[in-house]
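G., the chain you wanted modeled:
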Amino acid sequence: MGDLGKTTLVANTFNKQIVKQYFDYYVWIIVSQQYAINELFRSMIREIYKKKNEEINPMNLNTMSYRELVETLVENLQSRRYLIVLDDVWSIKLWKEINSALPNSGNGSWVLLTTRVDEVAFLNLGL
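Predicted structure as tokens:
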């Protein structure tokens, strides 16, 4: 399912002002075939802190363990409405790795995936 305009469609929605007004945090992460989950988490945290207009010490962020990264994300997202776009996802393994860091508080948060892999496209995220 390559080159059908999936990323363009999601980007057009993501960049609308109404989306930015509705969500407390909106983060776009490019995943690709090979990724490091800790680096994806760090990117998400950087974007969240940017939206909060707060500085995060890069040295602290770079030395955080997987568990600390997950805890930081949950702490920041738990009571907020967020939109996370995971662009170019190639494996359902990603959702299993990232799910614990994205709390479902029933407040209208969304996680969108773009993919060219049928198995990922038809994955029921259980949100």
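The chain is about 45% helix and 15% strand.

Shout if anything looks off.
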